[in-house]
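Chain entry —
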Amino acid sequence: MAGPAQVDLTGKVAFIAGVADSSGYGWAIARSLASAGATIIVGTWPPVLKIFQNGLKRGSFDDDSALPDGGKMVIEKVYPLDAVFDTTDDVPDEIKNNKRYAGLDGYTIEEVAKAVEADYGKIDILVHSLANGPEVTKPLLETSRKGYLAASSASAYSAVSLLQKFGPIMNEGGNMLSLTYIASEAVIPGYGGGMSSAKAQLELNRIHVHVHTTSPFSFSMTPSFIIFPLLNGNIIARFHSTISTSTMMFSRNTLFAAGAALAYGASSISAFAPSTAVGNTISGTAPSVIQQQTQSSRQYSSTQLQMAGPAQVDLTGKVAFIAGVADSSGYGWAIARSLASAGATIIVGTWPPVLKIFQNGLKRGSFDDDSALPDGGKMVIEKVYPLDAVFDTADDVPDEIKNNKRYAGLDGYTIEEVAKAVEADYGKIDILVHSLANGPEVTKPLLETSRKGYLAASSASAYSAVSLLQKFGPIMNEGGNMLSLTYIASEAVIPGYGGGMSSAKAQLESDTRVLAFEAGRKWKLRVNTISAGPLKSRAASAIGKEPGQKTFIEYAIDYSNANAPLAQDLYNDDVGNSAMFLCSPLARTVTGVTLYVDNGLHAMGMALDSESMSDRNA
């Protein structure tokens, strides 16, 4: 070790999106990169562009521009940038005619990328220092779908779009950097409006993006101490083990010396290593199920441990609403059946376009075999409600849906209306299950996913859970439980599971923790999610279906069978029985949890069937 790490970015061009003054992390990153010799250009939100440019001209930021060598950072060019618009076609008239945008054009991401290319050719460093949540002061339980998706669009998808448009003009070996926050994985009361959800999305968007996390703690290590791990191929993802736990933020100089090093030296960091999957595709019903036993009524002291025998689950008198059941092949059905086996009354919500098909199947007895219960009886679905969970209230339903023949003769299918109908029919309920997911562009890689497709996945697969709890929470009995279903793609790259679906699952898990806090304090409800392994349901089988090839889910099942610690088949009842536990009094102290029901696949860090391990496996 001859001394501190040497970082030389001379000749490198860095574009920092989201700089409008000298107080934020974007400015600090720019200054650190400038101190290493990089050329600095920035993108600034149009409504504050003139204020920022005038401040630069007047020297208002000169003190904050000082560099270690005695010089000052020079921002070579400032581009107007509104990162919620990808192309000129996306800009609505209300923005074009807004006086805050007067005299400006070329501020969409695509236009700015073209302007930068015209001015500088290629760039080397791309920094996303953007975040906005119009309802950030609202608890998640009070956040509207519009506010939630606005946070997602401005704070998460904007990073995807930046890389889509700037990626082609970046030199090989370049780096994109974004800023996230610990609220993505831990509850931070007061950081609301869907911003924690958006930060979870941002971290998941790391397929080719290095995410740098800030933490609400002080940090007194020296810049060189931070730089060396980065140069050795380690990304600074969390600063949990800090010297001081004050409420101050990191020193901007200290933290972003690390940012400069990341942009320069972390060329070996990779989030995913592909492998070849083998095995057979199997799905079905578990060979054994929970056997019900008579439950005696006892009250125990909270300080005593008393084991009287096998755990007993009795949900007699409990009402369970499962949103997202349309056939007998998925996890929603399996959860319903497990709850029914414990005595719960089952009611479900079904997507209107397939409602009649499902109802007719029930009448014809098409699902009788899959309705069998351990005691020899059959599950009875007491009532099926039409439910389209992308609409919160009747006012949200557009005319194109109202006039759609697939919705003909139906009404009352928004979340609010269904909740009111359930209340009218059953009064209070005890269990709420979210078994809903949809991504219209799920077969597209994230780098090819449109903003519309990304937000549609977020709306249908993540915010729908928030809205369900908003509307059903007031009619749930104290001690009740909400349960949702997630997938390992929320935290690890799963090629083929695209269109923003992985991002939506990351949101769903983050929201589970936040809602556990909020609903726990407000209604004394529990909120959990199950990260289920791959199952060949009808919906999953439709992903990536190509003639002569296995589907996405078939590859996923084969991979799981080959690599999971438990080399056994996963059945839908395995998830159903785990759900029954979480929804029962046995789990009365369990909330905010992501429970993995995947034969342990989530714990693996290396693929056993990888080609690189072929000699070892021989």
